[in-house]
Design goal:
Helix 7 links the parallel strand 5 (135-139) and strand 6. The chain contains 9 helices and 6 strands, in the order E-H-E-H-E-H-H-E-H-H-E-H-E-H-H. Helix 4 runs parallel beside helix 6. The chain has a 6-stranded parallel β-sheet. The chain starts with 9 loop residues before the first strand and ends in a 6-residue tail after the last helix. It is an alpha/beta fold. The protein binds adenosine-5'-triphosphate. Residues 15-18, 23-24, 27, 113-114, 116-117, 139, 141, 186, 188-191 line the site of adenosine-5'-triphosphate.
């Protein structure tokens, strides 16, 4: 059944998750808390459109996201992109979620982005359509300050026009607003983890132990 405007907003969290780590998990957890979301839907990309092919298969990245989020009742995982034949574009994902048999047109959706992803937004396919389909909430990320004056002009204009300082405003419309939130700063990246693994070094305490065991047992990354 299509959901309604007065339902709490649903967080949408896409990524390559190669592999998923505590930076992602804290982002989703703190977004749900600070933005008063009904929950967060994790959407692992199948073939990411804007970057090199991930080292591990989409099914393995999906399995890691499922494992990492299984115990959290506010999280669910959408596997549709993993099984799609074409590259993952967020705008198409959001159009799919807006269909009547998914979230429908009225449910507030909040696309969750780290600051690095947000500052690169103008490179995304049909980026201006994203805000017709969802709100955007930007998480602060170490090393990626949000300096509005340094953003591409069109994105800075968008920010100035649409920024709301009270997250409650996200519940009042289906889409179109921008918010930011300060999450626990964790300078963890999947790149860092892949580099550690490639050098046979330990990634402990950067991602859940059971994922490290899975990575090791499945020989997902060479050398580890
Ligand atoms: P990579 O290093 O391979 O580029 P990543 O760690 O940035 O990967 P992605 O799967 O590309 O992870 O990111 C998914 C989303 O999570 C993006 O919006 C990104 O900005 C955000 N994100 C990833 N790590 C962090 C972090 N440590 N703090 C805040 N946001 C993060």
């Amino acid at each position: 059944m299509p959901e309604r405007l007065h339902d709490k907003p649903l967080g949408i969290f896409g990524g390559t998750f190669d592999p998923v780590h505590f930076g992602h998990l804290r982002l989703a957890e703190e977004a749900a808390d600070q933005l008063d979301l009904a929950g967060v839907r994790w959407i692992p990309a199948g073939q990411p459109a804007l970057r090199e092919a991930p080292q591990v298969t989409a099914q393995q990245r999906l399995a890691m996201v499922r494992m990492a989020t299984a115990e959290n009742r506010s999280f669910d995982v959408d596997a549709a992109e993993v099984h799609a034949a074409q590259p993952s574009y967020t705008v198409l994902t959001l159009e799919r979620l807006r269909q009547a048999d998914q979230c429908g047109g009225l449910r507030p959706l909040v696309l969750l982005l780290g600051a690095d992803a947000f500052t690169a937004l103008t490179g995304w396919h049909r980026w201006q359509s994203l805000l017709e389909l969802a709100h955007i909430a930007v998480a602060h990320r170490p090393g990626f300050p949000i300096d509005v004056d340094a953003l591409p002009e069109a994105l800075a204009a968008c920010w100035r026009e649409r920024f709301c300082s009270h997250p409650a405003a996200l519940a009042e419309a289906p889409a179109g607003r921008i918010a930011s939130f300060a999450m626990t700063q964790l300078a963890i990246s999947a790149t860092q983890i892949r580099t550690l693994l490639a050098n046979g070094r330990s990634p402990r305490y950067l991602l859940p132990d059971e994922l490290i065991a899975y990575i090791r047992n499945q020989h997902l990354y060479p050398e580890y």
